[in-house]
Amino acid sequence: MRCGGWRSCPAPRRWRRPKSTGTSGHAAESVPLAIYLAARYVTSCEEAILAAVRCGGDTDTTASIAGQICGAAGGTIPEPWIARLPVRDEIEELSEQLAAVSRGEALHR
Questions:
Q1: How many Å from the N-terminal Cα to the C-terminal Cα in the chain?
Q2: CA–CA distance, 77 with 70 (Å, rounded to integer)
Q3: 109 residues of the chain, pLDDT tens digit each
Q4: SS3 sequence, the chain?
Q5: Burial 39-66 (b: 16+ CB within 10 A, else e)
Q6: Which of 8, 86, 87, 91 has the greatest count of CB atoms below 10 A from its CB?
Q7: Dist CA 94 CA 97 (whole Å)
Q8: Helices 59-72 and 45-54 sit at what angle, rounded to 10 degrees?
Q9: Phi-psi map region of 75: left, alpha, beta (phi>0 left; psi -120 to 50 alpha)
Q10: Distance between CA 73 and CA 39 in Å, rounded?
């Protein structure tokens, strides 16, 4: 299944739309689409994720990848979405530990 919204979603001139994208769970289709959406909506993780969902198909895969790219680029997930996580405390603890490791700090248990 191909994303039907490409023509109505103008890209910045420096970004070219991927020639082969789709909304299946196949990495060869979903990764280029997720990269494009993350670049297209670089200032808003929320918009990148919602755009991935609007494309249809295997939306959880594409939206997840787009959200991960946005997060790695310094974007944030909207607070109302985070507040609904059933294991928020555990996720925040693990993310703090991962950040400490990436800074070269020893973990204190």
A1: 47
A2: 9
A3: 344 444 444 454 555 555 555 666 667 778 888 998 999 887 888 999 999 888 887 788 889 999 999 888 888 888 898 899 899 999 889 988 988 888 888 766 6
A4: CCCCCCCCCCCCCCCCCCCCCCCCCCHHHHHHHHHHHHHHCCCCHHHHHHHHHHCCCCHHHHHHHHHHHHHHCCCCCCHHHHHCCCCHHHHHHHHHHHHHHHCCCCCCC
A5: bbbbeebbbbbebbeebebbbebbbebb
A6: 91
A7: 5
A8: 160
A9: beta
A10: 10
> Which pair of tokens denotes residue 3?
């994303």
Please state the pTM of the whole predicted model: 0.65
Residue with tokens 């739309």: 17
Residue the block writes with tokens 């594409």: 62
The encoded tokens of residue 82 equal 């985070």
